[in-house]
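Person: I keep going back and forth on a fold encoding question. Show me how you would write down a chain together with its backbone fold. Please set it down just below, with no commentary around it:
Helper:
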Amino acid sequence: MGRSRRTLPEELLLLALDPATGTTAQPQSLDLGLAGAQLVELALAGRIAPDGDRIAVVMPRPTGDPTLDSALELLRRRGSPVRAVHWIGGPRLGLRQIYLSHLERCGMVHAVEGQMCGVLPTTRYQATDTAISRDIRARLDSAIRTGVPPDPRTAALAALAHAVGLGKHLYPGNEGRSSRSRLRDLIRHDPMGGLVAHAVMDVQNGAAAQPRRGQSAAGGARQTGPVPMQPRRTGMARVAAH
């Protein structure tokens, strides 16, 4: 996969990044959304495909993106299609921080060091080129405003933005209510994006904790929430700003 365009996880993270505070909106559900965005990006690249409510690897060849290829390899090792809700609800070791660090290396954000309560060191992230974020936002605004069916990438981005709760961040207040409703409706324009978005919402609602039919609840329950980002190993724990 070439680097001529941003991946869906990168776009979702840039959408969630508040330009004023350098923090990310909806930090907990955003971790789930990033895992889901990886699935959609792999599907757009022809590496995986939906199989009912499951995800199947159809081409194990690497994409060239190390983070996506790591996810692809984990899916391949499963050997059989995995339920989207179980994949998204599995452990996510610092996925948000991985993508923030990647955006920093690419020059799209820069880290701003600070302190919480004057003691704990923190890191916030500011966009270095706000035109990129404006372009991503403009695609969503256009799909909402015109009612023209968007391309699969934009439809999936809209579905994920709705699933992780970014609607109120992007279109706040009573005046944004109709835009939030249309954002939610865009979920129907991309089958893979819709599958993943519903899986993200199911995980948040605890559906991933339910055992499969014929499986006992004691049969090894999977972790259903994201694993909190681990602090950097410095002399004093560093708190990542959400």
